[in-house]
Amino acid sequence: MITSHFVRDLKPYVEFITVCPEVEIGLGIPRRPLRIISKEGELRLVQPATALDVTDKMNDFVSFFLESLPPVDGFILKNRSPTSALKDAKIYYMGNGVASVSRGPGFFGREVLKRFAHLPIEDEGRLRNARIKEHFLIRVFTTAAFRELKSSGKAQNLTGFTTNNELLFQNYNSPIANELKKLSQEYEASLNPDIIQRYEAKLRELLQKPPTCKSTAETILQIMSRFSDRLTIQEQELFRSMVQEYRGARSPVSVPIGTLRSWIARFQDDYLANQSFFEPHPRDLADIQTMTSYCDGKDYWSLD
Questions:
Q1: How far is it, in rounded angstroms, from Cα 192 to Cα 41?
Q2: Could you tell me where the DSSP H helices lie in the chain?
Q3: What CA–CA distances, in Å, run from 167 to 134, 203, 238?
Q4: How far apart are CA 34 and CA 54, in angstroms?
Q5: Under DSSP, is residue 36 helix (H, G, I), strand (E, B) or coil?
Q6: How far apart are CA 303 and CA 290, in angstroms?
Q7: Is the peptide bond before 175 cis (omega within 30 degrees of 0)?
Q8: What angle (nearest 5°) sits at the alpha carbon of residue 189, between those of residues 184 and 191?
Q9: Less CB within 10 Å around the terminal CB: N or C of the chain?
Q10: Residue 91 phi/psi, 5° resolution?
Q11: Per-domain boundaries in the chain
Q12: CA 115, CA 102: separation in Å to the nearest integer?
């Protein structure tokens, strides 16, 4: 009944494992609403219309379901749901005859956050924000590519994986990106499987926070420098002004990125042509809202 354009567009590229915790514990469709109620310092999941308390049944199901999952690359939760919300489910407090309300994760969402904090986790409400969506997609597809690299038995290609993602990693976190490069070189020399585990932990750390506008601008200028000996002074000055327009929230990032793409084709730069920085996920998922996103200087990762 509730559709998500983002989920619809993502379906051709991922294998979804769908679940409705409320249906799974035997509640019908349609059903009376559930509420999270704080009772004597404990959160309970209750159906007020019937006084039914499904807390234990829900906790049992959530544990069973999450423990039985195969390897997954991320979660999309239902916002405002008392079971599946990421952080905006209503929590009702009763005391002295006065009711108050706060917000927090639902019963299912809370356990997902606890068990899978290393994975990309979002709700469909926040994914309407173009920059949050872009960061989520980059994390999902990069995480999946690394998981497939490990499971394929071709971990010796770790250096190639690192090289193809070099600019993306530098944009996210330059110090950690340098550590990943060193780890890939160590692994190539020794084939020590412990290095793979260290690499994975560092990769998760790198992808936790999205890049800043400043970092993106610096990465774009770094790429331009590869062509500086083949560009006129006027071309370089014009490009730097494009980057300044982006930094000043007067132009979307797609303007300098589009120019870089044209130079890559013009000068046939194979290294840049293979960089995931330019296409970190399927191009069909980069809608017009994402491509025209501006640098607004806000901490969009904390947006409600």
A1: 49
A2: 5-10, 21-24, 55-67, 107-115, 130-151, 158-164, 166-172, 174-190, 193-206, 213-225, 233-247, 254-267, 270-273, 288-291
A3: 16, 14, 22
A4: 9
A5: strand
A6: 16
A7: no
A8: 75
A9: N
A10: -120, 120
A11: 5-128, 137-206, 220-302
A12: 23
> Using CA of residue 64, residue 148, residue 198, residue 116, what is the dihedral sign?
negative
> Residue range 251-260: average pLDDT?
92
Of 45, 47, 76, 67, the closest CA to residue 58 belongs to 45
Integer-rounded Cα Rg, in Å, for the chain is: 23
Residue 39 is predicted with a pLDDT of 83
Neighbours of 215 (CB within 10 A): 15
Q: What is the mean pLDDT of residues 116-129?
A: 93
The packing angle between helices 213-225 and 254-267, to 10°, is 20
Q: Which residue has the tokens 């679940």?
A: 19
Mean pLDDT of the region 82-97: 85
3-state DSSP assignment of residue 38: strand
More confident residue, 115 or 295: 115
Is the overall model pTM greater than 0.85, yes or no? yes
